[in-house]
Amino acid sequence: RSNGNNGTNMANPPVTITDDVQGFWAARWSSAALGWHKRDVNPHLQKYNDLLVEKDESNRIFLPLCGKSVDMAYLVSNPKVSHVVGIDIIKQAAEEFAEDHPTLSLKEFQPSESCDATSSNSIFHGDDITIIVGDLFNLLQMESDERSKYVTLGSTVSTEYDGSTPYLFDSIYDRASMVAINPSLRNDYATYMGDILRPGGVMLLVTIDRRKVTNDASKSDGPPFSIDESDVRQLYESQGWVDTVELLEEVDDLTTDDDKKRWEKKGVLELHELVFVIRKKTSESK
């Protein structure tokens, strides 16, 4: 997973992951400190998955900073979904997902040197699923035609994609992405989400809100970083591509004594999960 530290606006040099950040996530994976990974399908996805597949068929879904989430397999199993694309900076995530889901027949594919703009050294393709190993922001910053070729490169989807139009997604599922990136990159992130989403498309966003803390550091600490409703509205309602931002629900995330003790050690006394649906305008005007 990538949460690059360089650049805060589109005019700056390309936003890329730093070695320190990549090392941070690599260390988490090597030590199996995967607090964000859940063994079961996320209940918010189960409850609101119809929002991600509003077309009758051939829905394309993007999962930024996907890790080895079982949510990807859940989405692939939906007959209305034609292609699930995830990206993560850690190759181990894709390898373990492939091992955990053998029926998806994921195989590693080496992209050509002409695709060096992504700094990815491998792509995993399976039945209706692609997992890119590389930096999220590098992928998002590619020109739309190059990104379209890259996302479909070597997969069965490429036989169905003629390259005449940008390969846009019908929906985006962000459960642990925006809360993982450096807060200084959120505006760039939100802008790029609009670039890859088709007109009328939908984004299902899950954030955490460190609502009550013992000190300021506990509020700003991360990842995962705290993003409350006002943060989401300020960020996305200012984006020209956004039609509506709706808070679907909020859930108390500290329901067990173990959870309360674990977060209390971090100075967090109240923690909520917020679920939003963000809709893109049906026209291309911004």
Helical coverage, percent range = 25-40%
Biggest β-sheet strands, sense, barrel = 9 strands, mixed
Secondary-structure class: alpha/beta
Shape: globular
Radius of gyration: 18 Å
Q: Report the uncertain regions.
A: 1-19
Number of strands: 9
Order of helices and strands: HHEHEHEEEHHEHEHHEHE
Task: Tell me the β content.
Answer: 25-35%
* Straight-line N-to-C gap: 29 Å
The helix tally amounts to 10
Mean pLDDT: 85
Strand order of the largest sheet: 3-4-5-2-1-6-7-9-8
How would you concisely characterize the structure shown here?
With 286 residues, this protein is α/β, with parallel strands linked by helices. 29% of the residues lie in helices and 26% in strands. It is globular and about 55 Å long.
